[in-house]
Design a protein that fits this description.
With about 290 residues, the protein is an alpha/beta fold. The protein contains ten helices and 14 strands. The protein has two domains: about 80 residues, Alpha-Beta Plaits, CATH 3.30.70.120; about 160 residues, Vaccinia Virus protein VP39 (Rossmann fold, 3-Layer(aba) Sandwich). About 35% of the residues lie in helices and about 30% in strands.
Length: about 290
């Protein structure tokens, strides 16, 4: 992996999805790497190739990252030295700026790009929500933007909130009660910090599934976001139905195009109707209405 230096580096690990996701979980679980800035995404759908990009802050974090990644022989790992200017941009930017309908999502480094005619959301990723999931975030925001042209949502639940961007978007566009949940306490903390940055009234709670008292207390919801992975989307179909008011909307993402038929079947069998599907890169977003 090259000699250890004080220069800023980018570590790239490529391999099958299972190995990439296992390595991502290991990075999150290790106390020496839990605060890493990194992303995980599907690089080549045809080849089933996934990649992790890590930007360690210093030699100690680099060494810890490389030690974790060495535990996954299915991954090919390379380390590249970054130019100072490149590292400055990467370390300050957080999530890359993205426009999705009326929403403009940006990090601290890009605050000057915000415009007065958009809903500007400053989101810092920290250890939550890999930037590789951006295709799904944009899909959810685009779907939400289109729905807002037709109706408003008073009560909104964001399941697996990550950085909190979807819940914050709802709060900033008029939702009276907005709740976000995540199984990762670090994500809950980061989401709360992002809500303060955006002067958004959102409550974030550490919870697994939708059985938590805080989630039950605010039912029924007019809109549920669930930007997670396909297996938990299928597993939560009945719970999401129970959390929604009749006629309520579920915006589901975090799934690949190849997985949408399976996810859709789980919800249609529980009385949901497909309103819209959006595709961005390899990712799919489903907009469903509870019958």
């Amino acid at each position: 992996m090259g000699p250890m230096t004080d220069a800023a580096v980018q570590i790239v690990a490529r391999g099958p999805r299972a190995a990439a996701e296992a390595a991502s979980a290991a990075l999150d679980a290790d106390s020496a790497t839990e605060a890493l800035t990194y992303s995980i995404l599907e690089e080549d759908e045809a080849k089933r190739l996934w990649r992790i990009d890590v930007f360690p802050a210093g030699a100690d974090e680099r060494a810890a990252t490389e030690a974790v990644l060495r535990r996954f022989p299915a991954l090919q790992v390379a380390t590249e030295v970054l130019a100072d200017a490149d590292w400055l941009a990467l370390s300050l930017s957080g999530l890359p700026p993205v426009r999705a309908g009326r929403f403009f999502v940006y990090g601290a480094h890009d605050r000057g790009l915000a415009t007065p005619n958009t809903v500007n959301l400053r989101i810092e990723a920290g250890a939550a929500f890999g930037t590789g999931h951006h295709g799904t975030t944009v899909g959810c925001l685009t779907a939400f933007d289109r729905l807002l042209k037709l109706r408003r949502f008073r009560r909104v639940l964001d399941v697996g909130c990550g950085t909190g961007v979807l819940a914050i978007a709802a709060a900033r566009t008029g939702s009276r009660l907005t709740l976000g949940t995540d199984i990762d306490p670090v994500s809950v903390r980061i989401a709360g910090e992002n809500a303060k940055l955006n002067a958004a009234r959102v409550r974030f709670v550490h919870a697994r599934g939708l059985a938590a008292a805080a989630v039950r207390a605010s039912r029924p919801y007019d809109l549920v976001f669930a930007n997670i992975l396909a297996p938990p989307l299928v597993a939560l179909a009945q719970d999401i139905r129970g959390a929604l008011a009749p006629g309520g909307i579920a915006i589901l993402s975090g799934l690949l195009r190849s997985q949408q038929r399976r996810v859709l079947a789980a919800y249609v069998s529980r009385g949901f109707h497909l309103e819209r599907r959006l595709h961005r890169d390899a990712w799919a977003t489903l907009v469903l209405r509870r019958g």
